[in-house]
């Protein structure tokens, strides 16, 4: 890979790709501008029947979702994400006109995994233009960002998108039940993945640049401080004609409301949650409960003789089990005092906290395992599950019974609608436990770097 994932994120506020020739058309990707509002609204309203069935559900009407304020906020969020290196949001230009959008988001920096998505004007569909745009973007992700896997979730009834992904070399990995709330209902989505090897094996025709120097046109990387102060060319608020589509007062109001929303979301993560105590009926001496101060001694000493890594949160090097220091570094459970207090602090805020909901499996007063619920980093609307137990204290039957109590609590008390677990291939014990708790095997994630460290194949299990 051209860069490692441990480097600082690459700021992307002024990236432009192309133009390249595709058939009789020229295709270019560039950052969004406020002046795109009119064309964006026109296409989206006209193509509602084409787009809305596969777009996220909202309490707003389709017209209310396409106002100047919404577009201003979309631009502000996109610029901020690109400055931070978290996401690239590009406008698809066909022959110099706005024709759609494409984006990718770094969903897991440690494992160099990104999610891609796109939409295009129905009048420009079925010409391979959106595939050309995705190819430009994937080529950039692999060569410059060092991305190892690009994931794309697609509704099972979105045939044009499925044909596009197959044509680019994406490989189907899973079918996720009720993965997204789109078009007014939760729908099954297929999960597709592309690696550099897949792209090479597809043997696609090379991109044909209008000018070899234009593919891709990537401005020199600036310092992080300079990047924070930079907007895409001619797109910053107050940049003259770029603002012609959205009044300045609307931009200011959108910026204010976005700032207030961001603060509220951060504060929401630190709203105290009620303590949890779930008694396992099959074993009255077994309880699944909230972490407490009294657990520190056992938390730091208990050995992970069996670790089940069904996902990571937040997939940082400190939290991942088995990093470059070797598997024993994650299994000896020797944690710093600062990490313990950070973990204990986060446990007060339940599922909303940065680390999610951490529950202790208490057997006869002994710290025998953990259950973690958190926002899944996979591209789906799901609560991820991470579990481990001490097999000397917990047999599979008790483990499954305790897991069923956690599931019942999640769905009835926490409002969870879908749970997802990534289990390393070959871990038949854990697979049998989640199956006994009601999970279904949804597919195989290839070369997926779970929290145990090295990239390996993982089975994806889901429950709704």
List keywords for this structure.
disordered N terminus; Aminopeptidase; 18 strands; 2 domains; alpha+beta; 9-stranded mixed sheet; globular; 30% helix; 464 residues; single chain; 28% strand
Overall description:
The chain is α+β, with helices and mostly antiparallel strands and 464 residues long. The protein has two domains: 17-267, Gcn5-related N-acetyltransferase (GNAT) (Aminopeptidase, 3-Layer(aba) Sandwich), CATH 3.40.630.30; 277-463, Aminopeptidase. 30% of the residues lie in helices and 28% in strands. The chain is built from 13 helices and 18 strands. The chain has helices spanning 37-46, 48-51, 68-84, 129-143, 159-168, 196-202, 224-228, 248-268, 296-301, 327-331, 337-347, 396-412, 428-436, and strands at residues 17-22, 25-30, 87-94, 97-108, 113-120, 149-155, 171-182, 185-194, 208-209, 277-279, 286-290, 307-308, 357-363, 366-375, 383-389, 419-424, 440-449, 455-463. The strands form two sheets. A nine-stranded mixed beta sheet has the order 7-8-6-5-4-3-2-1-9, sandwiched between helices. α3 (68-84) packs across α8, α4 crosses α5 (159-168) and α12 packs across α13 (428-436). Mean pLDDT is 82; it is low at 1-8, 214-243 and 303-334.
């Amino acid at each position: 890979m051209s860069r490692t994932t441990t480097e600082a994120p690459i700021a992307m506020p002024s990236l432009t790709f192309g133009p390249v020739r595709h058939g009789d058309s020229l295709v270019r990707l560039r950052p969004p501008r406020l002046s795109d509002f009119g064309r964006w609204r026109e296409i989206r309203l006209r193509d509602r029947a084409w787009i809305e069935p596969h777009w996220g559900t909202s309490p707003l009407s389709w017209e209310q979702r396409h106002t100047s304020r919404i577009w201003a906020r979309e631009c502000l969020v996109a610029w901020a994400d690109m400055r931070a290196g978290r996401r690239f949001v590009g406008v698809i230009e066909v022959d110099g006109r706005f024709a759609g959008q494409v984006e990718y988001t770094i969903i897991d920096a440690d494992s160099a995994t990104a999610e891609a998505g796109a939409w295009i004007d129905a009048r420009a569909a079925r010409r391979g233009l959106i595939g050309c745009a995705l190819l430009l973007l994937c080529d950039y992700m692999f060569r410059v960002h060092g991305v190892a896997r690009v994931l794309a979730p697609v509704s099972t009834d979105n045939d044009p998108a499925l044909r596009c992904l197959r044509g680019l070399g994406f490989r189907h990995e899973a079918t996720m039940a009720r993965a997204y709330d789109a078009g007014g209902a939760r729908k099954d989505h297929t999960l597709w993945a592309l690696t550099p090897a897949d792209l090479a094996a597809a043997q696609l025709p090379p991109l044909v640049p209008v000018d070899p120097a234009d593919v891709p046109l990537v401005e020199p990387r600036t310092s992080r401080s300079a990047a924070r102060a930079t907007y895409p060319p001619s797109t910053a608020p107050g940049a003259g004609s770029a603002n012609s589509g959205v009044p300045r007062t609307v931009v200011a109001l959108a910026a204010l409301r976005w700032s207030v929303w961001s603060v509220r979301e951060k504060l929401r993560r630190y709203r105290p949650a009620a303590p949890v105590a779930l008694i396992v009926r099959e074993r009255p001496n077994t309880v699944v409960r909230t972490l407490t101060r009294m657990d520190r001694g056992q938390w730091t000493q208990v050995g992970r003789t069996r670790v089940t890594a069904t996902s990571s949160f937040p997939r940082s090097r400190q939290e991942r089990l088995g990093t470059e220091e070797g598997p024993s570094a994650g299994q000896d459970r020797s944690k710093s005092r600062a990490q313990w207090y950070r973990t204990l602090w986060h446990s007060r805020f339940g599922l909303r906290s940065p680390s999610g909901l951490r529950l202790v499996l208490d057997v006869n007063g002994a710290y025998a395992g953990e259950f973690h619920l958190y926002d899944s980093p996979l591209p789906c609307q799901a609560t991820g599950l991470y579990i481990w137990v001490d097999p000397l204290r917990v047999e599979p039957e008790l483990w499954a019974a305790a897991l069923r109590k956690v599931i019942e609590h999640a769905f009835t008390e926490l409002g969870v609608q879908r749970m997802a677990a990534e289990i390393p291939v070959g871990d038949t014990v854990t697979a049998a436990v989640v199956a006994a708790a009601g999970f279904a095997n949804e597919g195989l994630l290839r070369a997926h770097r779970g929290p145990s460290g090295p990239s390996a194949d993982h089975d994806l299990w889901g429950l709704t």
